[in-house]
Amino acid sequence: xxxxxxxxxxxxxxxxxxxxxxxxxxxxxxxxxxxxxxxxxxxxxxxxxxxxxxxxxxxxxxxxxxxxxxxxxxxxxxxxxxxxxxxxxxxxxxxxxxxxxxxxxxxxxxxxxxxxxxxxxxxxxxxxxxxxxxxxxxxxxxxxxxxxxxxxxxxxxxxxxxxxxxxxxxxxxxxxxxxxxxxxxxxxxxxxxxxxxxxxxxxxxxxxxxxxxxxxxxxxxxxxxxxxxxxxxxxxxxxxxxxxxxxxxxxxxxxxxxxxxxxxxx
Length: 266
Ligand SMILES: Nc1ncnc2c1ncn2[C@@H]1O[C@H](COP(=O)(O)OP(=O)(O)O)[C@@H](O)[C@H]1O
Ligand SMILES: [Mg+2]
Fold this sequence. Notes:
Blueprint: H1 2-13, E1 21-25, H2 32-41, H3 43-48, E2 52-56, H4 63-73, H5 83-89, E3 96-102, E4 120-125, H6 128-132, E5 137-140, H7 146-157, H8 168-177, H9 182-192, H10 198-207, H11 215-229, H12 233-240, H13 253-262
Parallel strand pairs: 1-4, 1-5, 2-3, 3-4
Domain NB-ARC: 2-161
Pfam families: NB-ARC
Protein name: NB-ARC domain-containing protein
């Protein structure tokens, strides 16, 4: 992560004449959003760009709504929000616009609003062709190696550092089956905390047929295991309600609680 962060920061701070499009691509759950947050938090980036603006896209994004969101962020008045008005609102500024989780290059058309004055648009995406379509300077978000995978998994699986229930060899095999994806390592790791059914989980992981699946389906299949083979049915029903909220929506506890209550789950 640190190496990728350094590279992206240097691409963003590079010559103003270089492409205004910079991006990172990689599998779902590989850590792209976390990287983008770290980029925004980086002191060099904060010192160089003002404003730093963030928009979350996602597969079913309404791009016009994102234009409105951007207009609000830069306090642009008026009803007629367009590329031109947004561009005028940012004129003379060296800004960084982060577009997180872009799925289609056509979605970028309405947000091509920064000047070629050293301002940058930083994109995270699962689809490399989104970056290629703009000639973006791109970096791949790689998977975690064996050692980093183990470190991340252990933090979540053994929060009390009690390893007594399981041998190192079994933990290593479970970690290997997580495929170097931080999201999967966290989900499976947390599921394993305090449990004793390691051999059962390992056998389930070994049963998965991932070979014929593309990268995206492999991630989903691994996460699905964290859901259906590993969670009790009652918790699964509670869990399903998260799907009723939009991506990156800050779900309020009472909002969720009311949904559960309506279904007689609490
Ligand atoms: N290198 C890492 N170390 C620890 N946790 C990580 C790392 N990369 C990602 N994560 C965590 O894994 C989860 C998925 O990461 P996220 O950035 O949302 O992935 P993506 O945006 O690529 O789908 C998040 O909970 C994130 O905090
Ligand atoms: Mg993301």
